[in-house]
Amino acid sequence: MVSGNPWSSTLMRLSALTLQVLLTAMNTTSPAASPSLGVGFIVLLAIILLSVALAVGLPGNSFVVWSILKRMKKRSVTALLVLNLALADLAVLLTAPFFLHFLAQGTWSFGLAGCRLCHYVCGVSMYASVLLITAMSLDRSLAVARPFVSQKLRTKAMALRVLAGIWVVSFLLATPVLVYRTVVALKTNMSLCYPKYPSKEHEAFHLIFEALTGFLLPFLAVVASYSDIGRRLQARRFRRSRRTGRLVVLIILAFAAFWLPYHVVNLAEAARALAGQASGSGLVGQRLKLARSVLIALAFLSSSVNPVLYACAGGGLLRSAGVGFVAKLLEGTGSEASSTRRGGSLGQTVRGGPAAQEPGPSESLTASSPLELNELN
């Protein structure tokens, strides 16, 4: 696991720090302060976060996709999951210029179709990301609990079914966005791309549904998986590199840190809707509305952080392997050797040591497999 890793503790504190910064910023909207000052600060902060996400995430995720497609001959299950995670991040980052234009101009200029399409892409990306992360966790848990079953299931056909299922479910779960998003014209000749609900019950349903399916339920599965792994490995010691295992944990913690505040605001607004309070009404409603603007931008930042985590988890690989460090990271290094077929399952050996009888948690992530992309076409 990642005990003692400064990156994990940093990510765990990020959500609390974000909420603290927002609270400080939104205090400027109190009756004693200028409302325009607080709104201006929030808009500026959102623009900065979106700009950083676009500047870091677009080239970073493009590099990850290129590395996996061009630099890896044998793509493990984790490599395919990371590839799809990078594609999901790229999709949402491509919508960032539209939101930056909206924040800078103060009006939505891309019509109803653009409004719904941009938010739908964001929704699909959110669901795909959390489901891919959940799949990584379940893969690790299965490898520890049922190693031989895991080896038999890690085939091209199964990988195709899982990935196709993740994307289909993501497209379906994001459909409420297409129903509720609309363009609202203001009296000031400005337009907003805004959620419009037929009733407060619809609003509460959508917000709770998004929080449950896009965060709470998947992360319960993640926590259960890692609890099972920890329990089973308590008395075991593995000689293999755990670099990729730490990487997966960091990806999970980063996603949680960037998305938890957004879903907390979702649930708070859902509670207000169930209590019959209009969205944005009162001081609390205004602050929640301002918080949502920044937290959406922060969620965009989560789409740019994974390439940074790969570089940090890679350590010396960046210096030794150069532009190929992502491929080396996902293939497995150090004591890990490539896998070979034995008796119809994936058998792995440790360089300089005897053959392992049962794969460790990181083996399920770094094992070479016949899942080459040219076989998937």
UniProtKB/TrEMBL annotation:
One of the GO BP terms on file: neuropeptide signaling pathway
A Pfam family annotated for this UniProt entry: 7tm_1
Biased composition regions of type Polar residues, renumbered to the chain: 363-377
Chief location of this protein within or outside the cell: membrane
Domain spans labelled G-protein coupled receptors family 1 profile: 60-310
SUPFAM superfamilies: Family A G protein-coupled receptor-like (SSF81321)
Entry membrane topology: Multi-pass membrane protein
Subcellular location(s) of the protein: Cell membrane
Gene Ontology CC terms: plasma membrane
InterPro entries cross-referenced by the UniProt entry: Formyl_rcpt-rel, GPCR_Rhodpsn, GPCR_Rhodpsn_7TM, Leukotriene_B4_rcpt, Leukotriene_B4_typ-1_rcpt
UniProt keyword Phosphoprotein, yes or no: yes
Keyword vocabulary terms for this entry: Cell membrane, G-protein coupled receptor, Glycoprotein, Membrane, Phosphoprotein, Receptor, Transducer, Transmembrane, Transmembrane helix
Region (Disordered): 335-377
PROSITE patterns referenced in this protein's UniProt entry, alphabetically: G_PROTEIN_RECEP_F1_1, G_PROTEIN_RECEP_F1_2
One Gene Ontology MF term: leukotriene B4 receptor activity
TM annotation in the entry: 42-69, 81-104, 110-138, 159-184, 204-226, 247-265, 294-318
Entry similarity comment: Belongs to the G-protein coupled receptor 1 family. Belongs to the chemokine-like receptor (CMKLR) family.
Protein name per its UniProtKB record: Leukotriene B4 receptor
Organism: Macaca mulatta (Rhesus macaque)
Taxon lineage: Eukaryota, Metazoa, Chordata, Craniata, Vertebrata
